[in-house]
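Technical note accompanying the year-one report. For the benefit of new consortium partners, we illustrate the data format agreed upon in the data management plan: each record pairs a sequence with a structure-token string. No post-processing was applied to the example shown here.
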Amino acid sequence: MPISDNDNLHKFVCSFQRGKHPMLKVFLTASFFLISFSSIGMAQSFFESNLQACNGGDTKGCYMTGLHYDTGNGVAKDQVRATQLFLKACDGGRATGCFRAGNNYGNGSGVAEDQAQATQLFLKACDGGSASGCFEAGVQYSSGKGVAKDLARAIQFFLKACDGGRTAGCFIAGAEYSKGNSVAKDQARATQLYIKACDGDYANGCFYAGNAYGNGYGVAKDQARATQFYSKALQGYIKLCDVGHAKSCYAAGGQYAIGIGVAKDLALTKQFAVKACTLGYKKAC
């Protein structure tokens, strides 16, 4: 009995689904290269479009072109040119350009390292509404990089970063209020800042908020709420651990070791410690 065209089509489809058809490898290889070339072509097209916009005076175009050069997306990587474009965007009032240029000066990427220039650019970014610029300005003032060390001013920048959605700023400011460093000690405010950091999925903020409720630091003791914050902290640490953040692996292991916000589990403690060690966190080894 002859095989119909429909039977042949059915066999062809089934063999593709099982990955056994001889043309499958050719098809997948060709598809991969088509997608790759398409992606490269799109990146080059975006680069050319942004460059044209920049040459026409568009500061966003300058910033985006700087990103292309900074990452090598659609054009050969050139951090010297990237920094020049970030500066051009910054001069045109784009805060993100100031921030990126500040990063490059702070890291010596494409320019000679210049912490004083980095600080000035972070300040300009912060004044322009960049929460990340405010945060980095706080880091510069807290460490005395490129500017006289001034922890009180640093805290103000961390608070401004926090208000702009940079959750690490909330956490650091909270820690300073908890310790009373260059500000009046205020456990209640510290706890509120930890909670704000936690609301932004900053794991350390969740852990310290749990600690505050567990011990009654600035709030009434509430073990149930403490457990909720500890549990959220653990979830955050595990997520960070999964993407290779060694200290978060160690922190997750620590919670399992003591049973904070989770049932005690020494097997998982060891598992997280081994991963932290493998990722280079020597304290876990």
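Partners are asked to follow this layout when depositing records. The mean pLDDT is 88.
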